[in-house]
């Protein structure tokens, strides 16, 4: 699963990860590399260092350090030997690589007219492993399609609880058509290149045969473009929160398009503390709310609510 991600790693770092048991490699969610500091990875919600002699350790003094030379090697591999080709991605602070994995970058920022132009002297890399879990939406589809009709849905989730994986599989299943549901024309606005994991505009993940994608496009602008140009039945985007996002969502729903989207938060109360989202929820445009959790496992459905914020205790009848 992490093979594509490992191809960009400096050789020494890659060999360290090859010392881990295969089962542990498959559980890795992110690899964090900081110049002059321990090589670290996250799996199952736990952060662990790589040991100098191979394997894992929780002790800093035993950890292998990531060198400045390896930082240059990694950046060179990311840019395919041409930093110019990376300029736009570096302005956003991340690069999407083959396999749909995303590499976050941090370092010294260069400004141009008060705006970020790029990140120079990159010293931190966060490689987030993109996993395609077909069937992730199986339990969710009945909750958002009572009577075979899709409901406008907001997925509420803390980071790394599976919301992107869920949205991706919803796009795939709705686009393909399953169990008397669909098929539908699906539009995905993928601002962070996480849902489809496009490289050069080509999806690295299976998001269905009838899905159109706007990659690396601001959500609000992208939603309006999709409404005007692609006439979708269903519009999917991730991590809303800005005023312009709310306006575009309302425009889509008023145009008769069903919306599936997500927002960062622990629960409905947490979302209601954010002015933009609170106004959007109070407007009544969403008919379903799903709350995700990591307990007992990533992607657990912790709560299902209808458009009046009433919890659906008999979930399949909600």
Automatic annotation (TrEMBL):
SUPFAM superfamilies: P-loop containing nucleoside triphosphate hydrolases. It holds the Pfam family Spore_III_AA. InterPro entries: AAA+_ATPase, P-loop_NTPase, Spore_III_AA, Spore_III_AA_AAA+_ATPase. This is Uncharacterized protein.
């Amino acid at each position: 699963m992490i093979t594509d991600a490992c191809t960009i790693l400096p050789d020494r770092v890659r060999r360290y990860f090859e010392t881990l048991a295969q089962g542990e490699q498959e559980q890795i969610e992110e690899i964090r590399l900081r110049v002059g500091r321990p090589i670290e990875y996250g799996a199952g919600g736990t952060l662990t260092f790589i040991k100098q002699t191979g394997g894992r350790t929780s002790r800093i003094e035993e950890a292998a350090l990531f060198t400045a030379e390896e930082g240059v090697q990694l950046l060179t591999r990311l840019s395919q030997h041409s930093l110019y080709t990376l300029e736009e991605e570096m302005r956003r602070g991340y690069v999407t690589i083959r396999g749909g994995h995303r590499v976050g970058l941090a370092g010294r920022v260069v400004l141009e007219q008060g705006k970020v132009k790029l990140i120079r002297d990159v010293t931190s890399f966060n490689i987030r492993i993109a996993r395609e879990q077909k069937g992730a939406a199986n339990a969710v589809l009945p909750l958002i399609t009572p009577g075979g009709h899709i409901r406008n849905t907001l997925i509420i989730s803390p980071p790394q609880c599976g919301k992107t994986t869920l949205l991706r599989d919803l796009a795939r299943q709705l686009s393909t058509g399953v169990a008397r549901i669909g098929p539908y024309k699906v539009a995905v606005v993928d601002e962070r290149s996480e849902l489809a994991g496009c490289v050069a505009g080509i999806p690295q993940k299976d998001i269905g045969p009838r899905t159109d994608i706007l990659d690396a496009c601001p959500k609000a602008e992208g939603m309006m473009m999709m409404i005007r140009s692609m006439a979708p039945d269903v519009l999917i985007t991730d991590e809303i929160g800005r005023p312009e996002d709310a306006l575009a969502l309302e425009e889509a729903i008023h145009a008769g398009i069903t919306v599936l989207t997500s927002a960062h938060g622990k629960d409905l109360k947490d979302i209601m503390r954010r002015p933009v989202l609170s106004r959007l929820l109070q407007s009544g445009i969403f008919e379903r709310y799903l709350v995700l959790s990591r307990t007992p496992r990533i992607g657990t459905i912790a709560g299902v609510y209808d458009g009046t914020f009433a919890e659906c205790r008999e979930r399949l009848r909600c």
